[in-house]
Design goal:
The complex is a heterodimer of chains A (about 220) and B (about 200).
Chain A (H helix, E strand, L loop, with lengths): L27 H14 L6 H9 L3 H6 L2 H15 L5 H6 L18 H7 L18 E4 L18 E11 L2 H4 L8 E9 H5 L7 E8 L3 E3 L1
Antiparallel strand pairs in A: 1-2, 1-5, 2-3, 3-4
Helix pairs in contact in A: 1-4, 2-4
Chain B lengths: L12 H15 L5 H14 L2 H13 L1 H9 L1 H6 L11 E5 L4 E6 L8 H4 L4 H4 L1 H6 L4 H7 L9 E6 L5 E5 L11 H5 L4 H5 L9
Parallel strand pairs in B: 1-4, 2-3
Helix pairs in contact in B: 3-4
């Protein structure tokens, strides 16, 4: 979706303002926000693509006014409601009132090291051979899906070159919506800065994205 | 932005909101609050940019390792026991005399947790995410880094599940240094691409 998350090339947000010796957390609640988000994800009711889509589906004004941990928590509340774990009455009461759906699993403290070490690999076998090879010229599709996609607006309808064929990966555009993993080949596609930004582009710039095969057509 | 959350007390509505959420989930038996403690401890004390710095120092010291890192970063990094969440599919990109690499996630906050730990706030915030792809030189200036005008800049937008680690150039004057000493020259920002390796004192 053309949502607030799709930031590449937008203007007006001001300087980056890196913080010297930045702490990992800027408030105690951010520690809990990280942990609650990971523990809730570990219940297995949604995947990373659905959680990303919940975050980018916040109203743009809300998204831009929120810190990243605030975005995480606001999206988590949506997911917990959608999947029947927390009700509106629970939220209003600030405590457990209604019964919850059954989670696939509950992450216990003793299992955290193993779960974090395992991670969640997203590579999958793909039955058909890769359509493109390194060096192939390609054009990204021009589309504007209302659902989740990982093809940023700035890189739509652009000519680039396949730099590397990666692996088969879960396709976020369907996986985010419970429509299956449908793995596809992923490619690193590199574009000249001038192809993307046109007049005034930095002549020394090139930008790459990692693109699923269905985002691409031969050029 | 998070600037008004520099403390955590009953007056902070967002702190109360997170606390209520944790309470609800705990009372329903959906989460284990002790698991949160372990997660936080892991990313505050165990997994951070020191991991990545050791990878870079090894690559500087051992050409065979550098070659492996270039070809199969996931396996090469796993050989140092840095594995797991948000490091499942790694790619190392090497700065050269000709090209400087910079990593961003314009669409969210994708970052190689297994080697760099949790991302800094600026990496997740709109100014960096919006400008890194269109005005990388301007962004780097804000980090105090001015690149030569003819240096090529390659920006890697982490739009899929590959996670990128920049291997900065080894500073001159470090011949014969141990990997441990070399690792001290490698900052988190150097492995994102917003800095170079530190010069030896």
């Amino acid at each position: 979706m053309n949502g607030p998350q799709d930031l590449g090339g937008q203007m007006g947000f001001g300087p980056v303002a890196p913080e010297i010796d930045e702490p990992y957390f800027h408030a105690a609640w951010e520690r809990r926000a990280l942990g609650v988000t990971l523990c809730a994800g570990a219940m297995g009711a949604w995947n990373i693509d659905e959680s990303r889509h919940a975050r980018e589906s916040l109203h743009p004004a809300d998204y831009y006014a929120s810190s990243y941990y605030e975005i995480w928590i606001k999206a988590l509340e949506v997911l917990l409601k959608r999947h029947g774990f927390v009700s509106e009455r629970d939220f209003k009461a600030g405590t457990a009132v209604d019964p919850a759906a059954a989670p696939k699993r509950v992450l216990k403290a003793e299992n955290v090291p193993a779960v974090l070490a395992d991670g969640g690999p997203c590579d999958r076998p793909v039955a058909q051979p890769a359509r493109f090879k390194a060096g192939d010229p390609v054009r990204t599709k021009n589309f504007n899906p209302t659902g989740h996609t990982r093809l940023p607006r700035y890189a739509r309808g652009k000519h680039g070159t396949i730099e590397a064929v990666r692996d088969g990966f879960v396709f976020p555009d369907s996986n985010a919506h419970g429509e299956g993993e449908n793995p596809q080949w992923v490619y690193t596609v590199v574009f000249e800065g001038s192809e993307i930004w046109g007049e005034g582009a930095d002549p020394t710039l090139s930008v790459s994205i990692d693109a699923w095969e269905s985002y691409l057509e031969p050029a | 932005m998070s600037h008004n959350h520099d403390h955590d007390n009953e007056l902070d509505p967002f702190a109360a909101r997170v606390r209520a959420l944790e309470t609800i989930l705990t009372r329903k038996g959906l989460i284990d609050p002790a698991a949160i403690d372990v997660i936080v401890d892991t990313y505050e004390t165990r997994i951070g940019p020191r991991n990545g710095a050791k990878v870079v120092a090894k690559a500087w010291s051992d050409p065979a390792y550098a070659d492996w890192l270039r070809r199969d970063a996931t396996a090469a990094i796993e050989s140092l026991s840095y594995t797991g969440r948000q490091g499942e599919h790694m790619q190392a990109v090497f700065n050269t005399e000709d090209t400087h690499n910079l990593v961003v996630c314009t669409l969210c906050s994708c970052y190689p947790w297994s080697v760099l730990g949790l991302p800094p706030v600026w990496y997740k915030a709109p100014p960096y995410r919006s400008r890194a792809v269109i005005d990388p030189r301007g962004v780097l200036e804000e980090f105090g880094l001015t690149l030569p005008a003819d240096k090529k800049i390659r920006v890697w937008d982490s739009t899929a599940e590959l996670r990128y680690l920049v291997v900065p150039m080894r500073p001159d004057g470090t011949e014969g240094w141990s990997e441990e000493r070399l690792a001290d020259l490698v900052s988190r920002d150097a492995m994102i691409g917003t800095a170079l390796a530190r010069q030896p004192a």
